[in-house]
Structures are given as structure tokens and as C-alpha cells.
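Notes from the pairing session

We agreed to fold both candidates in a single pass and log them together. This is the raw record for the first candidate, unedited. Please don't reformat it; downstream parsing expects exactly this layout.

Candidate A
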Amino acid sequence: MKRAKTILTLLLSVSFTLLLLASCGGKEPSASEGSPQAPSGNPARTLSQIKESGKIIIGVFSDKAPFGYVDSNGTYQGYDVYFGNRIAKDLGVAAEYVSVEPASRVEYLVTGKVDLILANFTVTEERAQAVDFALPYMKVALGVVSPTNALITAPEQLSGKTLIVAKGTTAEMFFTKNYPEVKLLKFDQYTEAYEALLDGRGDAFSTDNTEVLAWALQNQGYTVGIERLGNLDIIAPAVQKGNTELLGWLNEEIVSLASEQFFHGNFEATLAPVYGDSVDPDNLVVEGGKLD
């Protein structure tokens, strides 16, 4: 929690400074200033351009139920998509969703392929060098799911074994740094990762605890033996670096939605049907960008 609050404080400070510079006509950081992964593609669209086009382009997952996925009718659904629909409504435009993979989220913003990423994007100091994060709307930690008959209950039990991860995720970074003796089997897509676990190509799979808990509830014979690993992290929308106009609007939107407990309503609509009573919404939901 302490680490999450520190990152949140840093984000608020950076956001305020950038907005102050913009409002005073100050010089905004150029593409080469302060970011080793600065944008080299198309510039971010302004709010006016987004409104004039009649749509906001949002990068989401298409295979990470119940947060971002495509249903049997070909429609994007999930916790992130529910939020994206509200953003579009309040902007007075349509939401156009683009499927992204974990490792492509930064690149899609940097090159201007999307206006916004809502794809379970965990805030890290490294990522914050390449994109700008708005206020958080969810909090998570890592979890590990494995076959019930060969249950992994501690990361040390993975020594010499194969752990499945998705490329570009905090799980990949965490185990690479802290448990280098664990063999990582990496996939671009979550569907591929789960198929590998079902096929027995790995001993366990690690990603956000919120997701593995949901998956285990729907897949008999698998259990989340490690429900919380590492630090508590925060999930936030992300925009192209330096897009202070859209960033400021998003922060105001997140704060204003707290008055109606929007994200608790989002939880009830998209996550409660999956989790039932197994997850307390207050352990996941963040209202108004404020951590408890």
C-alpha cells in the first residue's frame, strides 16, 4: 500500500506540474526531454480533434475476461470497457475499441494508434517514463494459479519449474527480478497462456490476482494457491506522453464519478457475476482516484 500511495503521489505531482505549464503557456517537454522511450510516431489527438471526429479510440484487451474481452456477439465487454463506454458518453462521442496485447500497450500510445489505454495497465516507474498515467481506478497484486493436485502455494516452490506469464506484464518483471531461477514460458496473448496451463506446458500461471481468481472459479481443477504476491499496485488509464489536455480531462472525470460510486457500480455489473461473494469490491475498486 505504501508503494502504491508513493506512485500515486508522484503521478498527481507530475500531472499538476504539466497542467500548470500548459495553462501558463509554458514550454511542455519535447519528445527528447525526460523520456528514454519518447514518442516517435503520430502526435496525440487533442480533445477538440477527438470530439470533431466523433469517436475516441481506446486500446483494451480482447481476451482478458472479465476486464476486457470480446463476447460471442463480437462486442467488447468487461470492467475496462464499461469505463470506456462512460468516458465516450461524457465526451459526447462513440467509443472505438482496438485490441492490444500486454507488450504493445506503450507502443500503441507512442505511435498514436490509440488515444487512450484501458487495459489493466499497472502503473510502474518505468512505464511512467514512456506514457502519462491518470488517476487510478483499480488496485491489484500478483496471483499464481496452478492445478489443484499440484498446487503452488509459495514462489519458492517454482524453483526449477516452469511459470507461464504474458509478455510485458508486471508478473514477467517481478519474477525476472526476484526469482531468476524460475523458468518463464512467455506468451503474447492471455488465451495462449491459459491454453499452455491447461495443456500442462507449465506448472503455474501468474498475472493479476483479480484475473486468476476469476479464471479459477470457472475452471475446475485449478486453484489460486498464491492470492497476493509482491506489492499492491494500481491500475490507471494511460495517454501519450505530454497529452496534458486529455490527461486533465480524465482526472477530472475520475474524481467526478466518485459522487455516484461509479466503479462500485461497474464492479456489480461486470465482475460480481463472476466473483460472487469471493471478492470484496473494496479490495479492488478505487473511487475518485483515492486509495484507502
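Candidate B (folded immediately after A)
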Amino acid sequence: MRQADPEGGNEMRARHVLPAVLLPLFLAGCASAPPGEVNDPYEAANRRVHAFNKGFDSNVVKPLTSHGGDDESNGESAMLLVTNVGGNLALPGKVVNGLLQGRPARAAQNAGRFIVNTTLGLGGLHDPAGQEFGLNEVDTDFGETLHVWGVPEGAYVELPLLGPSTQRDAVGKVVDLVIDPVYNIAGEPEVYYAFGLRVGSKAGERARFGDTVDSVLYDSADSYAQTRLLYLQHRRYELGMEGEAYDPYEDPYAD
């Protein structure tokens, strides 16, 4: 006879108790927009934040993540290593979210990837988990956990430095920091190193997709509208909220 799993019971209780606590926070004006539509009641404020983020990218992030000259390959290699380590440090939080979503297979895959890359991959510098064992990352976050629990998307918001989001995903970003095992276990100054590597990993993603980001921010007639459209399309497609394929190069003004 199969015995009850006390950890599974705790997980199921958490999945029911936490939504009961969080859902009231979303009942006032946090309804999802119909598929294909945009809920942006804070557009004026969002555009001011977008202008700030765009200026920060132009003056700080873009110059730091752009490479040129004889050191280009070395710079890209160093950025790739930082991206790898930062991505590896993000895996424990993804394991927690997989469990909270009731998806143990995804959690186990991320846990296996973290163990292999932390040991054989020298702390995540290399990726033997994906290259040799087929343990690819299953991306997730607490914003998706809230979606699984039935919390609505809410209004579109653009966050300072963090960029495009929704009310639900903004709460998710905060909770991700609270539940991340790395930040809860590591002491000082290790926790600051971990945070720096995570930030460096995001900078690495900016460098990797630099041409696309530049096209959206600097070549669009309305970079705010383009950013909002692409983020919502991509996020909804990730969560299975819309059946249409996501095209990052779609022209928002085609209609």
C-alpha cells in the first residue's frame, strides 16, 4: 500500500493556502485582458518608466554588453561564462516553482541539471547536463506559478530596470527572491556574489539578443508599444494562454 507523502501534502496545502492569501490582492483591477488585447491603464506612467529604461540601456547596458576590436571573442567568452553561472544559480528557484506548480518531472529535470552542472560543470561554467545528459533547463518562475493557481494576469506594467511585466509577474519577481534557496542559504558576502552573477547573466542575454533588442528599442516607430506587444505575446504563449504562434518580428502596426 502506498504511503502518504507528507511533503506532497505540504505542497498541496501551500498551493491552496497561498492563492487564498494572494488572490485578494488582485481582485481590484487585476483582471486579464481578452486574448489578443492589451490591458494598460497605467500607460502614461509606463511610458515614463520605459523612457528611463531606454536611456539606461543606451548609456549603460548596451555599451557594457557590446564587443568590438581584437578582444571581441574573449569578451564574448567571458560573458558566456558569466551567463552560464548565473543561469545555473537560478535553477534552485525554478525547482521550487516546479514543485509549487505540481510539476515534479520539471522540478526533477531542473534539479538534475543543477547538480550535474554544479559538480561536473565546475559551478555552472560549462553545460555537461545539456550537452551530455540531455538535461535542458525548463524555464519557469513564480509568475507562472500564480498563473497555474488561477491568478489573473492583471494590467501591463513596465518596471524600472527590470523592464516589461504584468501585475501578476511583478509580484512573481518579488516572491522569486523570497523563495529562492540560493538567497536563503548563502551568507554574506556570498549572497551578493550570487546576485551579481544573476545580474551578469541578464546582461549576457542582452548581449546575445542585442540585434533584436536594438531593433525594438531604437528602430521602432513606437518602442514602448512594440515592447509591450512583444512581451505580452511571448509571455502569453509561454503560459499557453494563446494558441497563436509567437513571432518576435511581427510588425505591431501591420493592421
